[in-house]
Amino acid sequence: MILDSVLQADPEATSKSSLVSDLDRRVEQVEEEFQSSPLGQLLADPTSSTKLIGATIREIYWEIHCYQPSTTKAGFSMIGGITPEERKVMRSLLMHKWEEVEHRIWALDGYKALGGDQSRIGRESEFMSPGAFAVAAVWERLATRINPLAYLGAEYLFEDLTARLTKSAIQSLATRGFSQQGLRFISDHAIEDEKHSRLLKHLIVEVSERHPEVKKDTLFAFDCFRHVYPMPLWLESYARAKTDLNSQGLLE
User: Fold this and answer.
1) Residue 135 contacts by C-beta under 8 Å, 6 or more apart in sequence?
2) Which residues are CB-contacts of 72 (< 8 A; sequence separation ≥ 6)?
3) Per residue in 21-68, pLDDT tens?
4) Is the distance from CB of 24 to CB of 197 less than 8 angstroms?
């Protein structure tokens, strides 16, 4: 099992890892940015427009559907570049990334369940936003320019932030009347990404102890990814959803 090594992890060692602490501080900053943003306030306010929330989530699903093939391919490329001496780490990361492959389908299912424009499907290159393109470009560049083990930094932003935000999001969305299929991507990640975050913490501790020189690249990978994700991408989705609803006269 992919998480077997986590069950043997030393929580004290994880808490004392300077690299994990540095990454956690960065994730907390992103979490604060989200909560103070118009999108975070929209989600937290029980009187806010359900239509706008649904349309925004739908657009974020579309972004995921568009960028994930590139981030997945780049992730596999980075993992494949890890040296044979770290094959156990490689195996854990490969299995984790393999579990993520179908999430593009989950995102598209959610997009359709929330009323997404069916004419976009099959024309992803035409309807890919600049934000999704930027996410793909950052991952593709990381895959060719830095230590492959630095993959852990970029992936940590995906997993740990999602684990933090989906829990509160699903509570807020539960009473909004959205279909189960429309929220499946969020509800499943609220459970799975907490496990994935623990896995990555454990691997980061292992790797940083054996390869302290990788810390700089790991933080650099996180910071590069943070430059385009999540807030630029999500706020663009929010603005697009708002414009679309206004144009149809549907925004309360």
Assistant:
1) 63, 67, 70, 71, 225, 228, 229, 233
2) 97, 100, 101, 104
3) 999 999 999 999 999 999 999 999 999 999 999 999 999 999 999 999
4) no
Task: Give kind and range of the element (H or E) at residue 55.
Answer: helix 50-80
Q: How far apart are CA 181 and CA 105, in angstroms?
A: 12
What is the model's pTM? 0.91
**Which residue's entry shows tokens 């691997």?**
203
Amino acid at 165: L
pLDDT digits 0-9 by tens, 121-173: 999 999 999 999 999 999 999 999 999 999 999 999 999 999 999 988 998 89
For the chain, the domains span: 14-247
Among candidate residues 9, 206, 244, the one with its CA nearest the CA of residue 115: 244
Q: Which amino acid is at 158?
A: F
Query: What's the CATH fold of domain 14-247?
Result: Heme Oxygenase; Chain A (1.20.910)
**Cis, bond preceding 230 (omega within 30 deg of 0):** yes
CA 169 – CA 190 distance, rounded (Å): 9
